[in-house]
């Protein structure tokens, strides 16, 4: 009973420590950490070193995969640039098992004591995050120490050892056990460290333990397959790459160890046993060699592997529609260029919103799902535009850049309001049963919405076009759109019952809100157009005065 209690207590401390490490490192791996990774993806050597560093820091290759997948979905990095980071993060994550292999039981007590006392009395976040990581590492090591101490009596029991060795002598059983271990713990490092602990306690020999370490490599992949079952398209590429690495490493070294055991040929395991008698160090090296081998292979074959995962996980139509067309992340340090690209992407976003009107041409029963699909595309594109907008280097802003930046922010607010109102209008016309009296109004709303947002798109894409003036005319309080809609509503509600009249009134109110939001946007575009015209006129005047060309980059 005492032995079981110590093993259980050790497991509890171990998982608590892993949780502390994970939670505190997530706080540390914020936007700056992501920007750091994004900057290094252009060079395979730099990205490999970044992956090694990130894996050693976070001690979780799964966390790195998730971070990189989110960055890739947001367009911050390309798949090819992310692959070395993921591959070498697996190598970096093997650091903690080596720490476990060290004989530092006394030092662990000091680490926990000092980190715990400081964590209790220091309140500043900049210090508590690091102390939380140190305390977590201490608890992990102490938990494993308690587990090993508790399991030692079992290792000395001949009956228990014979029972465990009987099962562990089957390589496939040991492999499946390792997969189950990392699947339950959701961490390769955790599975390896627990295996090391029981091997050090004498419960399992080095040979079977090596098969367990092989199985550990694919257990977390099973977790990703289950949790990512609904993920489709390019978002699966990096997850698939990690699964390929883990699966290939596990299979190759399982075969290698199996041949060594069955044929009795001294290969890798025999070499490691000759190198060191310490079982924990041997298993740490096995874990390192498996991950290092797959990282080196992927380093050489990064281009074919990128093409493979892109072919196996093609981009969906929805992803293509939600992917930015004009935004270039390397332009963030050049505010004028970044703001020009942003304006073009805002125009494309408006064009995407105009597709709401086309949903009214669909069968009424399928409209709601079409609205949801369109909203997801718009939401994803909006998030990427806003991320780009907030990432522009404001330290280099001139007064003119600051005005344009403020206009861009206000335009996004207006666009979000336009999108929300347009979506509400379409949903109102989609959720109710078909009413004959509504059809003329539906036609007017569809045509007016399409016309309005098309003009908004043209005015946004080309500030010097006459679309800006037409937009101001369309959105005027007594403009043609409001007159047409009011006339259509008046004709439709004439003599109808109160329920239909209330429905018409609700539609009219929402359409009026749409016009108001569009009017606000039109005024912002007018200000931006005037500012652009004044700047162009000023540059032309200066150029004419010196007899030079207005073409940027050319000197008179």
UniProtKB/TrEMBL annotation:
What membrane topology term does the record carry?
Multi-pass membrane protein
- Cellular component, GO, one term: plasma membrane
A molecular function (GO) term: sodium:phosphate symporter activity
Q: Does the keyword Translocase apply?
A: no
Please list every transmembrane segment annotated in the UniProt record, as residue ranges: 46-69, 106-122, 129-147, 167-184, 196-218, 238-259, 288-309
Mainly resides where? membrane
**Highest taxon listed in the record's lineage:** Bacteria
Q: Which InterPro entries match?
A: Na/Pi_transpt (IPR003841)
Which GO BP terms, alphabetically?
sodium-dependent phosphate transport
Localization per Swiss-Prot or TrEMBL:
Cell membrane
- Give the protein name, as stated in the record: Na+/Pi-cotransporter
Q: Which organism is it from?
A: Kolteria novifilia
């Amino acid at each position: 009973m005492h032995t079981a209690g110590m093993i259980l207590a050790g497991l509890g401390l171990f998982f608590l420590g892993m949780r502390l490490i994970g939670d505190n490192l997530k706080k540390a791996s914020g936007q700056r950490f992501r920007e750091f990774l994004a900057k290094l993806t252009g060079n395979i050597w730099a990205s490999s070193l970044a992956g090694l560093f990130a894996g050693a820091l976070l001690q979780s290759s799964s966390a790195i995969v998730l971070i990189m997948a989110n960055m890739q979905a947001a367009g911050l990095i390309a798949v090819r640039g992310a692959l070395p980071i993921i591959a070498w993060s697996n190598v970096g994550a093997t650091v903690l098992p080596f720490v476990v292999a060290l004989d530092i039981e006394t030092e662990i007590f000091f680490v926990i004591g000092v980190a715990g006392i400081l964590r209790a009395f220091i309140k500043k976040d900049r210090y508590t995050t690091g102390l939380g990581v140190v305390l977590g590492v201490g608890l992990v090591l102490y938990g494993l120490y308690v587990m090993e101490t508790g399991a030692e009596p079992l290792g000395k029991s001949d009956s228990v050892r014979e029972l465990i060795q009987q099962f562990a002598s089957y390589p496939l059983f040991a492999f499946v056990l390792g997969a189950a271990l990392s699947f339950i713990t959701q961490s390769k490092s955790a599975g390896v460290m627990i295996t090391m602990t029981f091997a050090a306690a004498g419960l399992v020999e080095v040979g079977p333990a090596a098969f367990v370490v092989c199985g550990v490599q694919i257990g977390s992949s099973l977790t990703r397959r289950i949790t990512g079952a609904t993920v489709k398209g390019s978002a699966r590429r990096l997850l698939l790459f990690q699964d390929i690495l883990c699966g290939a490493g596990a299979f190759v070294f399982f075969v290698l160890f199996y041949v060594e055991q069955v044929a009795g040929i001294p290969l890798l395991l025999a070499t490691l046993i000759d190198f060191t008698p310490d079982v924990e160090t041997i298993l740490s090296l096995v874990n390192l060699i498996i991950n290092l081998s797959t990282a080196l292979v992927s380093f050489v074959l990064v281009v074919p592997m990128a093409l493979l995962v892109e072919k196996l996980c093609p981009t969906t139509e929805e992803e293509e529609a939600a992917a930015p067309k004009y935004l270039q992340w390397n332009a963030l340090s050049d505010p004028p260029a970044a703001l020009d690209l942003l304006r073009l992407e805002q125009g494309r976003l408006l064009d995407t919103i105009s597709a709401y009107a086309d949903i009214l041409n669909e069968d009424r029963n399928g409209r709601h799902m079409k609205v949801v699909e369109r909203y997801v595309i718009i939401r994803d594109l909006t998030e990427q535009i806003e991320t780009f907008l907030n990432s522009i280097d404001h330290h280099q802003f001139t007064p003119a850049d600051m005005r344009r930046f403020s206009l861009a922010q206000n335009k996004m607010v207006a666009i979000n309001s336009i999108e929300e109102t347009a979506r509400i209008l379409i949903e109102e016309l989609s959720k109710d049963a078909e009413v004959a009296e509504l059809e003329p109004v539906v036609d007017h709303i569809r045509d007016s919405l399409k016309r309005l947002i098309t003009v908004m798109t043209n005015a946004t894409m080309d500030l010097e076009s006459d679309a800006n003036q037409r937009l101001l005319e369309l959105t005027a309080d007594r403009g043609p759109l409001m007159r047409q809609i009011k006339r259509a509503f008046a004709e439709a509600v004439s003599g109808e019952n109160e329920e239909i009249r209330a429905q018409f009134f609700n539609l009219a109110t929402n359409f009026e809100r749409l016009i108001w939001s569009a009017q606000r946007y039109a005024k912002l575009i007018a200000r931006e157009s005037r500012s652009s015209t004044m700047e162009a006129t000023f540059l032309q005047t200066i150029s004419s005065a010196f007899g030079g060309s207005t073409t940027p980059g050319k000197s008179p």
